[in-house]
Amino acid sequence: MPWHPSYRGRVLEPDYLFASQHLVPHLLHALCAHLQAVARLEVARSPEAQAEIATLHRALEGLEATPLPAQGPDVPDAYFAIQRELEEALGAHAVSWVRIGLSRNDLDMTVYRMRARELLLGTGEQLLTLRRALAEKAGAHLETVLIAQTHHQPGQPTTVAHYLAAVEALLARDSERLLGAYGRLNRCPLGAAALAGSSFDLDRGLTASLLGFDGPVENTYDAVASSDWEAEVVSVAQSVALNLSRFVCDLLSWAGAGWYRLGEGLVQGSSIMPQKRNPVALEHARTRFSRALGAAGMVLYSSHNIPYADLNDFGPDVQGALQVQHVQLEGGIELLLACLEGGDFDTERLRAAAATTDTTATELADELVREGHLSFPEAHALVGRLVAKLQGEARPLAQATVRDVSELGGPELDPRALRAALDPDAFVRRRGGGGPAPHAMAEQLQRARRRAERDVAALEGRRQALSSAREDLRAP
After folding, report:
1. What is the mean pLDDT of residues 237-259?
2. 242, 279, 378, 398: which could form a disulfide with 255 (CB 3.0–4.6 Å)?
3. Which tens digits make up the pLDDT trace of 433-446?
4. In which band, very low, low, confident or very high, does the pLDDT at 476 lie, cut at 50, 70 and 90?
5. Separation of CA 71 from chain center
6. Domains contained in the chain, number
7. Are 77 and 29 in contact (CB under 8 A)?
8. 325-380 pLDDT, tens digit each
9. Within this chain, do residues 242 and 375 fall inside the same structural domain, yes or no?
10. Which of 304, 332, 347 is the C-terminal boundary of a domain?
11. Which of 214, 240, 229, 243 is nearest to 124 (CA)?
12. d(CA 165, CA 181)
């Protein structure tokens, strides 16, 4: 029948283009797997049937090497285009075997999950590359003091390694979320038919195995009506984008202060201000993470307030949104990785900045408790008065003397103890147990590397399982 120009232009043609670019191999593999299950049915045991099915299987595999034909005026989508090609080559009766017990509902949902697996694995591999780069950069800055902020104010001395290891730990949890989402996603809808299954005794375990799934979706209604796996896929990407956008925000702030410098290929000059080194690669990474968050909304809102059934809302209509989110997230991670590998911290500027702050005040209060026998509230108040006094004299806390402390009613401290309490490097060295002390950070980074190796093995296992399944599918 002739399709309305609006329906063709706004729905059929874009969907056909998307399928030809991203879905056709998965569609062909799913049809091959289903065909192998059909071949084991009682109705298909005759030599003639087996011969037709074997020929059809070879024809489906042969289509992998050819592009999808141009969309005909009466062809709504890729599935019907493939069916027509096969019927023209083999005849309608031979092609009819693949139609037994098969609905577009379970076929499409299987294909969408297969595509989503690719996206998750790609993101997972990028994450691991970034995590390894963070650990490597952290290892080079075990003793580089960085003044950390709280509430947009200088807080306490820490190290670059301590900060970067914290980001790596955050991303490690994202890797865990991703692997968990993959496991819940990796169930096969094929064999659910329209929603109630089929009266043919199709081996759903076989088709799931041939497509690299851990097993079938148990409930056939659930197989075609649920979209929670899509929500989980986008939520993993949201978490990654949110977490990395905060990291980028800090890098941009440090680049503005001259604490972090990007390589020449990652900055851009000004058309009028000769001195400018604009950190444009970081800025574009930030916008891509923002777009990834926005694309998630397209998926989530498409699944909101709709009947529990097989629907286009969370079927073909959101596949493009999933792709957009993946492309934006992929671009953001790639740019951030380039900025991490092609940039570095200016250790001298960081050291100079640390020396001008009052951020060792907590350690001085602790020293007054240890050596001056004050309660912590008393020590806290005394150091607060000392900081105010020195600020009024335009002196940093690092220049405080024993006399400054005693004039405010404090105890007579040993000058060496006072100097150590005011030294940012000493502040860092005294804080192990998850803190920035270099020896503690070296151990923490070792654990981070082992954790990353474990996750690499998990992702490689998933990749290998898909590859092995593909080999099984090629040899029915």
Report:
1. 97
2. 279
3. 999 999 999 999 99
4. low
5. 35
6. 3
7. no
8. 999 999 999 999 999 999 999 999 999 999 999 999 999 999 999 999 999 999 99
9. no
10. 347
11. 240
12. 24
Host domain of residue 410: 354-429
CB 236 within 8 A of CB 181: yes
- How many other C-beta atoms are found inside a 10 Å radius of the C-beta of residue 458? 18
Query: Residue 125 domain-assigned?
Result: no
Question: Do 65 and 33 share a structural domain?
Answer: yes
Give domain status of residue 259, yes or no: yes
Best CA proximity match to 387, nearest among 364, 370, 414: 364
